[in-house]
Structures are given as C-alpha cells and as structure tokens.
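Notebook, student rotation project (T.W.).
Task set for the rotation: take a protein with a known small-molecule partner, predict the structure of the complex, and write up what can be learned from the model alone. Partner molecule chosen: zinc ion. Sequence and SMILES entered below by T.W., checked by me.
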Amino acid sequence: MSEVTRVVNSVFNSCSYVVGDDERSWLIDCGDVDSILPLIKGRLCGVLLTHAHFDHIYGLNQLLSIFPHARVYTNAAGREALLSDKLNFSRYYGDPFTLLYPENVDIVADGQMLPLYGDTTASAVETPGHSPSCVTWIIGESVFTGDSHIPGVKTVTNIPHSDKDLAHQSEARILQLAEHRLVYPGHAAPTEL
Ligand SMILES: [Zn+2]
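Predicted structure of the complex:
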C-alpha cells in the first residue's frame, strides 16, 4: 500500500488517516477537515469509520458538503449513532453533531471487503466493546483500530453502550490481526506490535 498520512485532530487529539493513490483518496475517520483537505489527492471516494464517537466523525458534514459523492462506511450501530447526538456523545460536549447526509452511509458487515484503489482493498472487522459501532479496518499491512486498541492504553469501557468483555475479545482478535502489521490507532502514534 502507498503511504498512510496522519492528521491529529483538535478534538481529543483523535487521529484521521488518509490513504490512496494519485487518483483516489480514502479517509479513516473524519475530524478537522481544514487539515485533511490538503492531503486529498484526486477524488475522495469515501470515509471508513472506526466508530461513531463524535471525536472521530465531527468533520463529516463539512467534508460531505465539499465531496457530495463520498461514501461513509460503518456498521448498523454506527449509522444509528451518526444520526443521534446522544449516541455519538456530541450533545454532552456542547457541540451537537448529527449527520446531514444519511443517504451517503453504507453499512458494512464483519468480513466485508471494499475495493479502495489499484489492488488495494479494505476488510472490515467488527470489534465491538468500546462502542457497538467499532469496526477495525485492515488495509494491506496496516490495521486501523480506532479506540478498540490503542497500544499501551487500556481500552475505554466505562462509558454508555460499552462492554468490557466484548472489548477484551475484540482486542484479542485485533492483536492476532496486527501481527506483522502496523497499528494505526484512533489516538496516539502508529505502532508496530
Ligand atoms: Zn471512542
């Protein structure tokens, strides 16, 4: 895969990542659009969401107003949270967010593969626990874990709709998948396990 470019966003230092080639770009999570825009080459095809907590999604309305054809990939719980400032927690942080473009959302299931660009595909791995909306994305030698696994940090499971046991199971699955791959977490720096 070509290189992965990271943006550290202003809200909670969440990370967004840009991957792609000269013609097609893809985003993993969407925070500060003004920082993301200069990194997009060619067409922005879509956004792969690691989960629908507000710090990972808050730029989506601005982004989709600029790229109305971009798709947003998440699971069924993620779609629900995109449409609810209660479920995505934004209402508790004084900046309520609900997605204005629900027709752009595509729901993915565990194991689903998406063609991204060239020979590169993304596989969706549902990793619930931190949130029911958690999806880990495998793209070539890279694993985008969101908040399901942040190396060196205990997975947060003391928030509404989280589940500690599921989080442990998901993390074990991620650690297997991450062997010989580079982990790009939802916060903090990329890490080789
Ligand atoms: Zn989160």
